[in-house]
Design goal:
By secondary structure, the chain is of the alpha/beta class. The protein has helices spanning 2-24, 37-48, 62-67, 93-102; strands at residues 27-32, 52-57, 78-82, 85-89, 108-111, 129-134, 140-146. A seven-stranded mixed sheet has the order 2-1-3-4-5-6-7.
């Protein structure tokens, strides 16, 4: 009788693990225009890397970029927010996970423009690009380089 109780309790605990993990994962809010294909591909990249994404189609992402404290010169085609940080452009999921783990004092991350070879911009070539850590006042430092 006691053995059956422990088996059932263990089974219930195993079933609840995915729920606990998903509850701990913050929702990634993404603001994009309705017809942008690369934004949709970037969202697929985030989801494939474990993020739960809530996409919002908006007329202009610049309003959200400004609201989240990312200067216009670091802009791209979509803006997001996760765990209190802004994420601008085609930032790789690994860098976002690193940001969330390290929790630096910053506004967030940005990949200005739309570099070929970045997540969501896969194609026949890969251009070098940088992921920038955007701090208060618009100051940046290179967070990661991709060659």
């Amino acid at each position: 009788m006691l053995a059956r109780f422990f088996v059932n309790a263990g089974f219930a605990a195993l079933l609840s693990l995915p729920l606990a993990a998903s509850a701990a994962q913050p929702v990634f809010e993404v603001y994009k225009t309705e017809y942008c294909g690369c934004c949709k591909e970037w969202i697929k990249h985030l989801e494939a890397n474990g993020f739960k994404v809530q996409a919002h189609n908006v007329a202009d992402t610049a309003d959200y970029r400004e609201k989240f404290g990312i200067p216009a010169q670091y802009g791209s085609c979509h803006t997001g927010r996760v765990g209190g940080y802004a994420v601008e452009g085609h930032v790789p999921a690994a860098d976002i996970k690193r940001l969330l783990a390290e929790k630096p004092k910053a506004r967030g991350l940005a990949v200005p423009g739309m570099p070929m070879g970045s997540p969501g911009m896969e194609g026949p070539r890969k251009d070098p690009y940088e992921v920038l850590l955007v701090k208060d006042g618009g100051k940046t430092r290179v967070y990661k380089r991709y060659e």
